[in-house]
Design a protein that fits this description.
single chain, 374 residues, alpha/beta, Serine Threonine Protein Phosphatase 5, Tetratricopeptide repeat, Glutaredoxin, 3 domains, five-stranded mixed beta sheet, 18 helices, globular, disordered N terminus, binds zinc ion
C-alpha cells in the first residue's frame, strides 16, 4: 500500500479528503447496485489517487469478496485494517481476515430464510465430505451450509488461536433429527444438543482411543434447535474438539476451554457481559475471584453458578485475547501447553507481579461495564 509522505499532510489534505470521500461514495453506490466489477475498477483508480482513504478499501474488499476473489479481498482488508481509525473497523477487518471471531462474516450465519428451509428434518440422510468433515444431516441444504461453516470456523480458530496450525483429521459431523435418534447414537440424554467426544472422554483420548466426532441435534421437542440456527453449537463443540487435542496431556484450564469455545460463538462476548453486569448490579452478586477462577478444577455445582462461570469464562477470555493481541495470546497458550500453571502463565502474559489479582480484576470488570452499557 502506498502511503502519503508526512510532508504532504496539511491544508491540501482537507480538499483531497473531500474528493476521496466522493470517490469512495461512487464505489459504494456501484456496490449497492450489485455492479461489483465496475466498483472494483472505480475504487482501484480512486486508491491510486487517494491511497490513504480508508473507505475506498472497505468497498473494494467487499466487492472483491462478492466476485469470489478471496486473496485480492484479503489484501484490501489488510490495507483497510492498517488505515482504520476505529476499533470497530479493525475488528471487522480481523473477522474478514479470519483472525477474529467468525461473527462478522455473513456467509457463515444461518439466516432466517435458510433456517426456515431446514426447519423440518427430511427422511433420508444427505452427506457431504469437506476437507476436514464428513457432514451428514437430514436436510440437503443444511448439509451444505454446515460443511462450509465448519471449515470456516476451523480456519478462524486456527488462525486466531493456534498460529495457523493445520488440523490433521477428518471428523464426522452429524445432525440427528431429534433426541431419540441422538441418544440412540450413544449420546447422553442430558446434553443440550451438542457433543464432541474428545471433550466428553478425555481419558479415552489420552489412551489414544478417542472417537472424534461432533453430534448435534436438529430439533428439540418438535421445534428447530435454536442453538443450531444461531449458530452457536457448531463453533463451540468444534473448538473443544480441536483444543483438547491440541493441548494433549496437559489439559487446558476449564475456563479457557469454555472461554475460547464461546469466543467462537456469534455475539457471545457482548451477551456474557450483559449477563454479568446485570448479576453484579441488579442482583448484587460478585465475580468469581480471578485466582480461584483461573484454577477451578471442575464445573460449579448449582445451575446459577454454572451460568455465571460460563459468562465469566466468555467475558474474561475475550478481554484477555483483545488485551494481549493474537501473538501474545498464542504465546500464553503455548506457555500453558508447556505445563506452566494458569496463574503464573497469566501473570507472565500480563506482565503482572504476585499481587496481580485485584488490579487485573478491576480492569476486566471496567470492560464488562463499558460493554454492557453500550
Ligand atoms: Zn463447552
Amino acid at each position: 500500500m502506498k502511503r502519503l509522505a508526512a510532508a504532504l499532510l496539511g491544508a491540501a489534505l482537507v480538499a483531497s479528503l473531500a474528493a476521496a470521500d466522493d470517490a469512495a461514495a461512487r464505489g459504494k453506490k456501484l456496490f449497492d447496485e450489485g455492479k461489483f466489477e465496475e466498483a472494483v475498477a472505480t475504487l482501484r483508480r480512486d486508491i491510486d489517487q487517494y491511497p490513504e482513504h480508508v473507505e475506498s478499501y472497505r468497498w473494494l474488499a467487499l466487492s472483491l469478496e462478492k466476485l469470489g476473489k478471496p486473496d485480492e479481498a484479503k489484501a484490501a482488508w489488510k490495507d483497510f485494517r492498517a488505515l482504520a481509525t476505529s476499533e470497530e473497523d479493525r475488528k471487522l477487518a480481523d473477522a474478514r481476515l479470519g483472525v477474529g471471531p467468525a461473527a462478522a462474516d455473513p456467509d457463515i450465519v444461518l439466516d432466517e430464510k435458510t433456517v426456515d428451509a431446514i426447519r423440518i428434518p427430511g427422511q433420508g440422510w444427505f452427506e457431504k465430505k469437506t476437507a476436514h468433515f464428513n457432514v451428514k444431516t437430514h436436510n440437503q441444504r443444511l448439509t451444505e451450509v454446515l460443511g462450509i461453516q465448519a471449515e470456516k470456523y476451523l480456519a478462524a480458530l486456527s488462525q486466531k488461536f493456534l498460529n495457523g496450525a493445520a488440523y490433521p483429521h477428518t471428523v464426522p459431523l452429524t445432525v440427528y433429527a431429534d433426541q431419540t435418534e441422538y441418544v440412540a447414537a450413544g449420546n447422553p440424554d442430558w446434553s443440550q444438543g451438542g457433543t464432541s467426544f474428545s471433550y466428553e472422554s478425555l481419558d479415552g483420548y489420552l489412551r489414544n482411543q478417542m472417537n472424534r466426532k461432533i453430534d448435534l441435534l436438529h430439533t428439540i421437542d418438535g421445534k428447530l434447535n435454536p442453538d443450531l440456527a444461531r449458530p452457536k453449537l457448531l463453533p463451540h463443540e468444534l473448538t473443544h474438539l480441536v483444543l483438547v487435542e491440541h493441548f494433549g496431556d496437559r489439559p487446558i484450564p476449564l475456563w479457557l476451554n469454555e472461554g475460547i469455545a464461546q469466543y467462537m460463538e456469534v455475539g457471545r462476548h457482548a451477551e456474557a457481559n450483559k449477563i454479568l453486569y446485570e448479576f453484579f448490579t441488579d442482583r448484587r452478586g460478585a465475580a468469581i475471584p480471578l485466582r480461584t477462577f483461573a484454577t477451578l478444577p471442575g464445573y460449579p455445582e448449582n445451575r446459577g453458578a454454572i451460568a455465571l462461570f460460563y459468562a465469566q469464562s466468555a467475558s474474561f477470555t475475550a478481554w484477555l485475547a483483545d488485551m494481549l493481541g493474537p501473538e501474545k495470546f498464542h504465546a500464553f497458550l503455548e506457555d500453558l501447553k508447556r505445563g506452566t500453571g494458569a496463574e503464573p502463565a497469566l501473570q507472565s502474559a500480563l506482565k503482572a507481579g504476585k499481587d496481580w489479582e485485584a488490579p487485573v480484576q478491576a480492569q476486566w470488570l471496567r470492560s464488562v461495564e463499558a460493554s454492557a452499557k453500550k
